[in-house]
Amino acid sequence: MQNNVFEWLDFAKRLAVKAGEMIVAARADSTFVRDYKMDHELVTTTDIAVDQYICSNIHTRHPSHCILSEESSPTLDLASVSESTPVWVIDPIDGTVNFAHGHHHVAVSIGLYVGNERILGVVHAPFLEECYWAIKGEGAYCNGKPLLVSGAKEPRNALVATGFPYQKDALLPILERVSRILHHCQDVRRNGSAALDLCWVASGRLDAYFESVKPWDMAAGTLIAEEAGALVGRYLQSSDRWPDVVNGEGLLVSTPGLFEAMLALTNLEK
Ligand code: IPD
Ligand code: CA
Ligand code: CA
């Protein structure tokens, strides 16, 4: 499989870069229309077009692989996928609200896992001109430069990112966590793209990140953070809705030196 992995990475990078061009062009011409999924979740015609572009290319090139994609196959039954089948996990636009409002914190996220192992991840931020990638065991990179997490050990020096769900009824415990973090850490950021938050932990711009997210938000970025030296765990007991390898429920990612302290701050039972 190792030889294939480098070829898969090249393929994923090319898809992500082309997808990024589509996103920048749609933003420049304002050629997108807003809509809402499940009444409250913003989606644009560009999310759909980019998803279609990425998924159709994967289908054509790797017809035996599976695709879990936010916009076209979010309910794929992963339990029925064989342990040896590669599964691509796609978020065509991570940061749709930013995209629609003309902010630059937007990314295309493409992850790949097999069985219970994350194999590769690409997170491309077209407006920031930053392309992050990692292969399991091969380190993490941004625009070709190796990434390393910050050496942060003390919560009081830590810059921590999080995010908020579209469903407003889930906010209360999240605000309690944010309050605890604000009291003990340097500050909190809500940048609007989980995939990029994970890459920024990898690059040392952030020291920790926590949020409950979906597989497509975290499949690629979690591997990039891990490969840059971050620890990955959870502050909530997860359900078995998703296989562990792409289960973003209660996701906590931080420098090794901060991990225990962040776990204590985010786990409301402690
Ligand atoms: C969202 C972003 C955001 C996070 C939300 C995600 P989307 O993804 O990653 O940062 O806080 O939980 O749903 O909807 O822009 O793909
Ligand atoms: Ca997302
Ligand atoms: Ca999305």
Question: Which spans of ≥5 residues are poorly predicted at pLDDT below 50?
Answer: none
List the quaternary state of the chains. single chain
Q: Give the tally of β-strands.
A: 14
Provide a count of the helices: 7
What fraction, in percent, of the residue positions are helical?
Answer: 25-40%
SSE series: HEEHEEHEEEEEEHEHEHEEH
> What strand order characterises the main sheet?
3-4-5-6-7-8-9
Query: What is the CATH top level name of the largest domain?
Result: Alpha Beta
The CATH homologous superfamily of the largest domain corresponds to Fructose-1,6-Bisphosphatase, subunit A, domain 1
Whole-angstrom Rg: 17 Å
Percent of sequence in beta strands: 15-25%
Overall pLDDT? 96
Can you summarize the main beta sheet? 7 strands, mixed
Topology-level CATH name of the largest domain: Fructose-1,6-Bisphosphatase, Chain A, domain 1
Straight-line distance between termini: 42 Å
Domain module count: 2
Query: What ligands are attached or bound here?
Result: D-MYO-inositol-1-phosphate, calcium ion
Sheet/helix structural class: alpha+beta
Task: Kindly describe this structure.
The chain has two domains: 2-146, Fructose-1,6-Bisphosphatase, Chain A, domain 1 (2-Layer Sandwich), CATH 3.30.540; 155-266, 3-Layer(aba) Sandwich (D-Maltodextrin-Binding Protein, domain 2), CATH 3.40.190. The chain has seven helices and 14 strands. By secondary structure, the chain is of the alpha+beta class. The mean pLDDT is 96. Helix 1 (2-29) packs antiparallel against helix 2 and helix 5 (194-203) packs parallel to helix 6 (215-227). The protein binds D-MYO-inositol-1-phosphate and calcium ion (2 copies). Residues 91, 94-96, 163-165, 192-194, 211, 213, 217 line the site of D-MYO-inositol-1-phosphate. It holds the Pfam family Inositol_P. Its cofactor is Mg(2+). Mg(2+) 1 binds at residues 70, 91, 94, 217. Mg(2+) 2 binds at residue 93.
